[in-house]
Write a structure and sequence with these properties.
Largest sheet of chain B: 9 strands, mixed
Number of helices of chain B: 6
Helix content of chain B: 25-40%
Radius of gyration of chain B: 22 Å
Distance between the termini of chain B: 69 Å
Strand order of the largest sheet of chain B: 11-10-9-12-8-1-6-7-13
Number of strands of chain B: 15
Structural class of chain A: alpha/beta
Oligomer: heterodimer
Largest sheet of chain A: 7 strands, parallel
Order of helices and strands of chain A: EEEHEHEHEHEEEEEEEEHEHEHEEH
Mean pLDDT of chain A: 93
Shape of chain B: globular
Largest interface: A-B, 104 and 80 residues
Strand order of the largest sheet of chain A: 7-11-6-1-4-5-12
């Protein structure tokens, strides 16, 4: 049977937060197109992750090399080329992280494979897959098909739920650890910083109150913090522009280049909704958006829409809360 | 000993940086499907401008020139006639030369095509650093940078939020942003390609002297030669408007009434 190779993202020998979503995508895709799944994980000491990944019932190959302690996409992309030559998978898939995209591009250029990125869903037209992704900042969707025998895919974080290894009883897949020999890769990872704010636990919060460009000034972040304090187990999130302005550390950023979250409540305050941001939060259970612009893209995925200036609305909200619930 | 293509004349010691810029539609512009579901209507009220991430890449190149002195910053763009205005803007922001790879076709342009055309141009030009934005705002492919690197055999680092060039100008040490605010430090030899993440700097406004210079300066325009590339890019099946989910409830009334309604909803959901 033909195969799909799912190359999971790992950071410092641990699976990346959205890592196991890729297994869910691979399972759905393999069901539709009758494929076998081969999972690949890489690091300097990867047995634990490989065994965890094998619980989903698929065969796992762990690639080990000292150069893979920290993410090393240049090295890893080169390291999987012999593997692709060897097992000739029909599809190779990565998470749509910046590293995943780098590896996908490298493979597509070196092996002349079609590459389709930021996949949100797929369909079958006969035995040809048609992949759907967003275009023009989410205003349109585009359907694309591969034109080569083998192709590379990157899967948008948040588009598929993480696979659930306990959903059906499964026998663990086999685990093979392969020590890889030296590869001519001139990139040398030197170190990794810890997140500057250890207390920012967006993924574990039930409620996220997020700030965007509409807050206008850094001091207005206090409004966001005050609203967040109304809820137990809440956190303050932000769109990228807020972090670029250095108003909040990047640990607060929600989006493809930040964190992908799915809290019970996501309140977007003054966020217009770039594709990059929406992809990182659209899985939230309840989305409330507050924006002055009735055309804001964020409204298209919101459950509750409030067209107001957050700078005046949030104080009103606090006041009403005091009157009614205290 | 350096390889042949990197060797230069004795007087030519300056560093060369190429910045790849893309023209995108302004996010506020209305978009309408045309051409039988194969592309959009590009006539009318669509405003075009430089991809925001590329602005950060261009600014970083200009900052390198300001700190090292003898650095030439070129910009390149692949696209229709209108892309020329984005290259002009890059001259206003401090680039020395603008190279326009003129691709007359409209419609979906696969990243592999853009990358192959830029790589073909750059191959024999002895660039020390090629900079791209980490992604294009409009399609978020994140492909052109690493594709160019793979085609040229350059090492590549993505999502760069800090860079430092060694005094001997042979290596560059970069901090790459991983998701969640964690950075990784990577050293790579030059020539190399970096994709630049937003927030690395504050892109400047054009200076008057650069605006005047850009006004008179001609772009180097090269007709795209697609024939010999033998690419096998993804095929466009169709484009469509996204399915609207269950339409959200617009909460109406005075600000006080809206606040009260929202609190009631949150209370019913046991959130407060």
């Amino acid at each position: 049977m033909e195969r799909i190779l799912a190359i999971l993202d790992t950071i410092a020998n641990k699976p990346a937060p959205s890592g196991f979503e890729l297994i869910n995508f691979a399972e759905q895709f393999a069901d539709t197109f009758s494929l076998d799944i081969q999972v690949v994980v890489a690091g300097s000491s990867i047995v634990d992750v490989a065994e965890k990944a094998s619980c989903y019932g698929h065969d796992v190959m762990g690639l080990e090399h000292n150069s893979l302690t920290h993410p090393n996409p240049d090295f890893l992309a080169k390291a999987v080329i012999p593997l692709i030559d060897d097992i000739k998978p029909r599809y190779v898939c990565f998470q749509h992280t910046m590293r995943g995209c780098q590896m996908a591009a490298h493979l597509s250029a070196r092996l002349n494979m079609t590459c389709i990125t930021a996949v949100q869903s797929f369909n079958a037209v006969g035995d040809i897959p048609v992949f759907r992704r967003s275009l023009f900042n989410g205003k349109l969707t585009i359907d694309l098909s591969p034109t080569t025998e083998q192709s590379v895919l990157t899967i948008l974080p948040g588009a598929f739920a993480p696979a659930d290894s306990s959903a059906v009883p499964r026998n663990p897949g086999t685990v093979v650890i392969r020590k890889i020999s030296d590869i001519d890769s001139p990139c040398r990872p030197l170190s990794m910083s810890e997140s500057t704010e250890e207390t920012v636990r967006l993924e574990e919060s039930d409620v996220i109150i997020s700030a965007g460009r509409g807050i206008g000034a850094q001091e207005n972040l206090e409004l966001i913090r005050e609203v967040a304090r109304l809820f137990p187990n809440s956190a303050v999130g932000a769109s990228r522009i807020i972090c670029d302005q250095k108003w909040l550390p990047y640990a607060h950023q929600v989006g493809v280049t930040g964190k992908t979250v799915s809290p019970r409540l996501y309140m977007a305050c003054g966020i217009s909704g770039s594709q990059q941001h929406i992809s990182g939060m659209k899985g939230s259970q309840i989305i409330v958006a507050i924006n002055t612009d009735p055309q804001a893209a964020i409204f298209s995925i919101s459950d509750y829409i409030i067209i107001e200036d957050l700078k005046t609305f949030l104080p009103t909200l606090m006041q009403k809360h005091k009157e009614l619930y205290k | 000993m350096e390889t042949g293509c990197r060797r230069r004349g004795p007087d030519d010691t300056s560093m060369k940086i190429l910045v790849c810029v893309k023209q995108v539609q302004d996010t506020e512009s209305p978009i309408e499907i045309a051409n039988g579901g194969q592309w959009i209507n590009e006539e009318g009220h669509i405003a075009f401008r430089m991809n925001r991430y590329d602005e950060f890449a261009l600014e970083e190149a200009v900052l390198i020139r300001e700190s090292l002195g003898d650095v030439i910053v070129d910009t390149i763009s692949v696209g229709q006639q209108r892309s020329g205005s984005t290259l002009k803007k890059s001259l206003e922001k401090g680039a020395a030369n603008g190279i326009h790879i003129l691709l007359e076709t409209t419609g979906y342009c696969p990243p592999s095509l853009t990358a192959a055309l830029i790589a073909d141009y750059a191959r024999d030009k002895s660039y020390d650093i090629i900079l791209c934005g980490v992604m294009a705002e409009d399609d978020m492919q994140c492909q052109v940078g690493p594709l160019i690197a793979a085609r040229l055999g350059f090492p590549c680092a993505v999502s760069v939020v800090k860079e430092a060039i060694s005094p001997d100008r042979k290596t560059i040490t970069v901090e790459c942003e991983l998701e969640g605010g964690i950075n990784e430090t990577i050293a790579l030899p030059m020539p190399c390609l970096l994709t630049i993440q937003s927030g690395i700097n504050r892109p400047r406004y054009p200076s008057l002297s650069n605006v005047l210079r850009a006004k008179d300066q001609k772009l180097l325009t090269i007709q795209a030669n697609v024939g010999p590339l033998s690419l096998k890019p993804e095929q466009l099946v169709s484009i469509s408007y996204p399915e609207k989910g269950t339409k959200g409830l617009i909460i109406t009334g005075t600000a006080e009434q809206k606040a009260e309604q929202l609190l009631t909803i949150l209370h019913e959901q046991s959130l407060i």
